[in-house]
């Protein structure tokens, strides 16, 4: 059983980050055309786009601020003009900030997380879902986090934004489900990354994971590809942890 996304067009926000690049490459590897959103790193976006085009799919880089309505609508118009209307949205971009306690956290961090976690998903839906409805189907995949279930010290702004995102996407799943559009969330654990290698500082975390290891960006990309495919046509409204069992949503 193969994941075949030929004939589909995906738009990945935050496509130049480590998770974003893995998702773009994997979706392209499954045959999807891909629009790579970036905020600042144009060179990396163009390099990734060229790489995917060399694989035989259509691809483009698109710049924008996913917290700004005008930018998202401009992104929609540019992608539609060049590649067509996306039927797969992967809302992955998020604002980075320095974590600290609730008592010390800058209010701007809470505002930034609201804008990049909640408002991004609202604006992306408003811009792109009408074309999915006209098409008769689509996929929306939000990238959440295991932190939304952990509620650990210093995570408050991040957790607040991602829990708000969870609420929006669950409601959206009910609202647009009749149009055969699925809405799901992938929640990574503390994945191995360029900035956070799998060194001895991560030993305590690894020991608490049932699989006794940390995952990779490819683990997240694999789940995204599955949810984007026809294999997941009857999966919607879900928060799916990809954390090696570190967090386990309950029934």
TrEMBL record:
Protein name in UniProt: Beta-ketoacyl-ACP reductase
SUPFAM superfamilies documented for this protein: NAD(P)-binding Rossmann-fold domains
Lineage top rank: taxon: Bacteria
Pfam families reported in the protein's UniProt record: adh_short_C2
Keyword line: Oxidoreductase
Gene Ontology MF term list: oxidoreductase activity
Family: Belongs to the short-chain dehydrogenases/reductases (SDR) family.
